[in-house]
């Protein structure tokens, strides 16, 4: 919280929490501000809004750039995280034509097989979270429970679920590198330009 830019006072933090844009999470002795899916959705949709003058930035030029980025993202179905990662954007589409995994599956099925795997992921997460939602679960633990699913397929499924908009699923890395175990490293899912070790899912 102390490293947040811009600095938020207590009133501003409360307003954002009450509006569902951020969550406060205690990790050890430190308090962290977590962006919610609602915040990321707002960021993706806010490109066409007017930009207030910030420092010495040219607001008109920034508005023009954001407007073009918005059109590009919608046209190419590019996730905001990949756009910000500075890598070649990956298109994450929902539905049976979503890229990233073999839709036939090991049993020769079709998109229904993919949906069944996604339901299994939701169920496994819920069990690992103690039959709760909105709880941190390590991807390493998820891989153990779903060890019969090919590693690359599971990674692609998690990316698809995060960026398709069909699920309330977010992956993120450990904030403290000291928390990362060799098991976490081996299980990490690379998405949005980073290695993610934690999964967080809503109902």
Structure description:
It is a single chain. The radius of gyration is 18 Å and the shape is globular. The longest helix is centred in the N-terminal third of the chain and has 18 residues, at 59-76. 42% of the residues lie in helices and 14% in strands. It starts with 9 loop residues before the first helix and ends with a strand. The protein has a 3-stranded antiparallel sheet with strand order 3-7-4. It has a two-stranded antiparallel sheet with strand order 1-2. A hairpin with a 2-residue loop joins β1 (22-27) and β2. With 203 residues, the chain is α+β, with helices and mostly antiparallel strands. The chain has 8 helices and 7 strands, in the order αββααααβααβαβββ.
In short:
The protein has 203 residues and is α+β, with helices and mostly antiparallel strands. The chain has helices at residues 10-18, 37-45, 59-76, 80-85, 111-128, 139-145, 151-163, 182-187, and strands at 22-27, 30-35, 136-138, 169-172, 189-191, 194-196, 198-201. β1 (22-27) and β2 (30-35) form a beta hairpin.
């Amino acid at each position: 919280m102390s490293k947040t830019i811009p600095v938020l006072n207590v009133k501003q933090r409360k307003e954002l929490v009450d509006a569902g844009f951020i969550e406060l999470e205690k990790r050890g002795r430190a308090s962290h501000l977590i962006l919610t899916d609602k915040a990321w959705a707002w960021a993706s949709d806010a490109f066409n809004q007017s930009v207030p003058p910030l420092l010495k930035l040219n607001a008109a030029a920034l508005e023009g750039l954001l407007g073009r980025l918005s059109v590009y993202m919608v046209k190419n179905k590019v996730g905001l995280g990949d756009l910000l990662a500075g890598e070649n954007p990956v298109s994450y589409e929902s539905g049976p034509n979503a890229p990233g995994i073999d839709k036939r599956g090991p049993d020769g099925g079709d998109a229904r097989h993919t949906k069944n795997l996604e339901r299994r992921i939701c169920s496994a997460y819920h069990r690992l979270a103690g039959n709760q939602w909105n709880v941190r679960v390590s991807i390493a633990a998820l891989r153990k429970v779903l060890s019969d699913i090919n590693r690359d397929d599971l990674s692609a499924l998690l990316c698809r679920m995060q960026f398709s908009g069909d699920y309330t699923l977010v992956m993120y890395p450990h904030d403290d590198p000291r928390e990362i175990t060799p098991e976490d490293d081996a299980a990490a899912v690379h998405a949005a330009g980073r290695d993610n070790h934690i999964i967080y899912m809503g109902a």
